[in-house]
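Lecture notes, unit on binding sites. The following record was shown on slide 14. It pairs a sequence with 5,6-dimethylbenzimidazole.
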Amino acid sequence: MLDATLAEIGPLDEAAMAAAQDLHARLTKPAGSLGALEALSVRLAGLAGTCPPPLPEPAAVAIFAADHGVHAQGVTPWPQEVTAQMVANFLAGGAVVNAFAGQTGATVTVVDVGVATPLAQPKVPAQRSGRSTPRLVSAKVRAGSRDMSARPALTRDEARSAVETGIRVAHELLDSGAGILVTGDMGIGNTTAAAALIAAFTGIDPAEATGRGTGIDDVTYARKVAVVRAALARHVPDPADPLGVLAAVGGLEHAALAGFVLGGAARRVPVLLDGVSAVAAALAAVAFAPDAVGAMVAGHRSAEPGATAGLDRLGLLPIIDLGLRLGEGTGALLAYPVVAGAVRVLHEVATFDAAGVSEK
Ligand SMILES: O=C(O)c1ccc[n+]([C@@H]2O[C@H](COP(=O)([O-])O)[C@@H](O)[C@H]2O)c1
Ligand SMILES: Cc1cc2nc[nH]c2cc1C
């Protein structure tokens, strides 16, 4: 399934991009006045292979949830059970991601690819009216990754299985009518794995890739950098072998997110990236299929330094830069109306000719 997906990923359609560029020049606005939105809409025309590209609606966020063996190294102040507890909160509609998804009409799908503790009963009761009910997909590959500081976090088969789960979820959401995929993640300890993945794929020093995650003191931060450094020194992952990198130092949610991005790229639908874990997964996705970058839209710039390094490597400009560091898909969902607006211009704005507006 992975190989078939990779075979479907191709370059942007130059003719559709030229048509979008030409249309932009004829719309009732000074050329270039929509700044980065113009290049974004042109790229999405190239992705869809038509001008204008379809409106990217509705949005569907998938929150891939998993735990991390490296939690045992004391890299985060939060207990591991919070992953399962937050999954229950997502399903009950009580998390920030639910508030932001509701605001833009996005559906919420939670995918358990590797939560280590039993899922807690949802405690927050009410769904808000008019909002779709969050859905759980149970696709546990194993109960958390292994501790990367002692052994490979995953076997290659486990990593592949998680990648294929992400591909499957992408297809399911698109078959249900989604017009854009939004990445979300939940996993206590996952910023350690994300930093290791970003250092492995970009070659930057672990100290540059590692941030303070949910919020840690200087002593914990120094330990976290040392754990990432030691894991990379132990496994020496080959950046040209993305499955090997994911297996050595990744999390199950990172592998699944890589598949989710590849699934969207194969279907030529935009994938709106959230924070540092999405960026780590996006680096894996382009290592599998360089053309997958054409489907990626960077929702925001996470406060994690590795996210900026990864976005630079991908050549993506984040839409929002507000110092967010929550994950769940929150930053990407806030950026969604900007992406929809970029495309809507090509559908709804009159040309100079049609509107009778004089050109310069
Ligand atoms: O999205 C981000 O950039 C981001 C930055 C910091 C923390 N997080 C979230 O916080 C959790 C991981 O933080 P930590 O400190 O336990 O590694 C995980 O559930 C992530 O979704 C997410
Ligand atoms: C409470 C909490 C909510 C989160 N959402 C994503 N990561 C998280 C980590 C914590 C600790």
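Take-home: The chain has a mean pLDDT of 97.
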